Amino acid sequence: MRRAPAGLSAEPPGPEVFDLAGFLATRTAAVNTALAGFLPRPAAKPATIHRSMHYSLFAGGKRMRPAVCLAAALACGGDEAEAMPLACAVECIHTYSLIHDDLPAMDNDDYRRGKLTNHKVFGEGVAVLAGDALLTQAFEIVAQASGWRRYGHRELVLELARASGSRQLIAGQVADLEGEGKAISAAQLKYIHERKTSALLECSVRLGGMSANCTPVQLAALTDFGYHVGLAFQIIDDILDVTQTSEQLGKTAGKDTAAQKATYPAIIGLDQSRRIAARLTSRAYAALTPFGARGAALRALAGYLLERQK
Amino acid sequence: MRRAPAGLSAEPPGPEVFDLAGFLATRTAAVNTALAGFLPRPAAKPATIHRSMHYSLFAGGKRMRPAVCLAAALACGGDEAEAMPLACAVECIHTYSLIHDDLPAMDNDDYRRGKLTNHKVFGEGVAVLAGDALLTQAFEIVAQASGWRRYGHRELVLELARASGSRQLIAGQVADLEGEGKAISAAQLKYIHERKTSALLECSVRLGGMSANCTPVQLAALTDFGYHVGLAFQIIDDILDVTQTSEQLGKTAGKDTAAQKATYPAIIGLDQSRRIAARLTSRAYAALTPFGARGAALRALAGYLLERQK
Prior knowledge:
The structure is a homodimer.
Chain A: H1 20-38, H2 47-57, H3 64-75, H4 80-101, E1 111-112, E2 115-116, H5 118-122, H6 124-143, H7 153-164, H8 169-179, H9 186-211, H10 216-243, H11 246-249, H12 255-258, H13 264-268, H14 270-287, H15 296-307
Antiparallel strand pairs in A: 1-2
Helix pairs in contact in A: 1-4, 2-6, 3-4, 3-9, 3-15, 4-6, 4-9, 7-9, 8-9, 9-10, 10-14, 14-15
């Protein structure tokens, strides 16, 4: 039996060798090309808004949500090209949420991915509008997907709107804002992380599965996977904020502590946080069992999210 | 031949007598009930965001966009109940755009419809998120519409996303922001007004027609109507800002002048602005000819928009 490449994952990702670096490189390129095709060009009138949208969308994001979306399509025996519009839509939502979260009225961040945040370059007014435009663009892109037998445009739009809406993604940001400087419980922090991060990751894999006309059983397995990977991903973000320098992260380190934001390390300690992240990833691996060898890309991505250093 | 009620319109609205006050009263009530049904309750967790969404959505808006949407369904022989989700979606978009436009980074308005603006009550962070949530909610509501033979959810979502996106509604706000304090031409101002106001009004009547499975010819007529009414509506807004007091308007009067914003009266004078608004309304009336008596509600609404004092 062949072994997985060293350092990819703490648990054996299965018998197959999966070239994760190759997968991520090719998919990032494909997603970038597709995104550029969906968006108006930067010079399209009014150029300010389109330059601002492009600035944040092409600021070096890891494209993890598109990657898990495409990998979920593969896990269900689907075609990545069918999932591509959905992968791009999710990335537009993610980018809009970062632009708005970075605003002075929210997290007040000057840097993101080693570059000035949108409002530092374009001003607050345009940054608000660029976020609005990317959010709107996401739904325009979903409308351009094929639509499938089990999942038509109604289901796709509902899926994205609910994950991004006032009970999920936005609820997480509101609870995060309200929790600043307050002593919050581990349960409350879990509520925030589930919404700020799990919701959209879960949505990404579900949309990928839908593009492959997945069965209800497959959709439930993807939901389980997305939820656990998403929560692990956010806990690792908390851990990295404590343990890494700004240079390593490409963004201001220690921001959570400075802003007196509750984090897993602050509430339950670093070691316990690491153990929870590892356990969540194990749960995510387990959710992939029904997909067999086709789940290789999702399995490798889960390993990567646990091992990442930035 | 019976005459239209006095004061409704500068041009004869056709042989029928149309009870516009009754139409607006019943439809506003119906739209409010439907909106309350689509949105999470104000107490839904996290209550801050839902209270904030309700605050602006139920702040006494005139529901003109829902009204023209429902009236367009009637003009095409359709059922208003079918158009209701689309009418509500458009109102969510309109309200989100007002919340974001009022922010300190944009127009910096303290009052809207005689009440404190969203950010004055809930703070800037929550106001940004309430706008985001209403924008997202609009698409969730569209997904819950029936979908019709000629116009499925793909067409409905595309319609709303394009009218609200970076080439239309948001383009108008960007151009408006960039034009502040500058000498802009009448052509540039028309560009702004077409996007800030006409785009969503045009979209409202088109969606109403779509809910009635309108023919391509009917859709073209509705587009023509919506464009001209929308542009007239915005020019009248400019005129009222100059001629009315804050008390009459229920919002800060003279803001455009104070902000050195270009307006039709400032660029081409008050009388010429009034003549243009009247001419645009005539064009809107003409677009309704194909609908005959069924166009009565749209015709009355156009008259109302020209005669309004606030």
